[in-house]
Amino acid sequence: MSNEDTKKRIDDFKRDVNGLKAEISKVIVGNEQVVEQLLVCILANGHALLEGVPGLGKTLMVKTLSQCLNLTFSRIQFTPDLMPADIIGTNIITETEGGKKAFQFQKGPIFGNIILADEINRATPKTQSAMLEAMQECTVTVAGSKYELPRPFFVIATQNPIEMEGTYPLPEAQLDRFFLKILVSPPDLNQLLSVMNRTTGESPAKPQSKLSAEQIISMGQLIRQVPVASHVMNYAARLTLATHPNTATSANVAKKYIRYGASPRAAQAIILSSKVLALLNDRYNVSFEDIRKTAYPALRHRIILNFEAEAEGISQDTIIGELLKEVPEML
Fold it and tell me: Which range marks the domain in which residue 182 is found?
């Protein structure tokens, strides 16, 4: 590919993403970083976990994103009585034209492009596990038959961090399958006033569809072509390995506060997210700053704290900040 073609593809990429952000901002006030990280997940073909207290617009944000993308959208409200068949579908008995009985697969709401798993930690572990194959393999298996899910396929889950009664925390194996964990914070005064004006006045603006499935897939292919210098790749790897408390590369903060460190998926998420940020900043290479910026959402759900950290009220983000200070960019 010539330099002119590469430059045009990067310009088109940035124009399309900025157009998408503009449409989302017609409905969502503030939370620019949250929207950007959500788009990073989509463009990198990953799944997102949104965490925030009720009423911050997490569900509205995902619905708005689906309206801006020409993709099929399904919302699954997770409750304790939800069963796996309610998500992936089940075989039902039908009658053929000849009067014979036969099984026919009835697809569940998982068969869509964007799946909103609302309050995912309210479902039982059995039901939560129904998402694992879909998230990892983009397939579901029912009664020995495997069914392909439409492409692209994204799961965006939400959970409430403060109301833990009647919930089932996601196991580490499932948390690890989320590309990024995105924290949604409350609005400030000006943002809240803007929300009030938009939602209590005339009919709110409706976002327009901006990207098709083919465009998203093409943009994902462009992302993977972004080069990463060996020393930058090395930094991302060392940062991930430093989260493990009992190795030669352990950071001091990890030895003190971490029980289990991040998996290789964390390093993959850091690199792919950084490639998206590089393109959004008109660069065809990944920088150390990209790595530092993406470390938080890529690592925070993959680090398991020990008792000492929990007793002292130390968060994963605090530990990641210390890791970034402790791990040098260059050896």
Answer: 1-81+112-193+213-225
Same domain, 160 and 125: yes
Per-residue model confidence as pLDDT tens digits over 153-177: 999 999 887 766 667 888 888 889 9
Q: Residue 94 falls within a domain, yes or no?
A: no
Q: pLDDT (tens digit, 9 = 90+) per residue, 63-82?
A: 888 888 888 889 999 988 88
Its pTM stands at 0.88
Contacts for 16 with CB less than 8 Å, ≥ 6 apart = 210, 211, 215, 219
Domain boundary among 225, 248, 269: 225
Q: How many independent structural domains does the chain possess?
A: 2
Instruction: Output the furthest CA–CA distance in the chain (Å, rounded).
Output: 74
Distances 219 to 29, 39, 146, 169, 225 between C-alpha atoms, Å:
26, 12, 28, 34, 10
Picking from 296, 275, 303, 291, the residue whose alpha carbon sits closest to that of residue 330 is 291
State how far the alpha carbon of 102 is from the alpha carbons of 7, 135, 140, 143, in Å. 56, 30, 21, 14
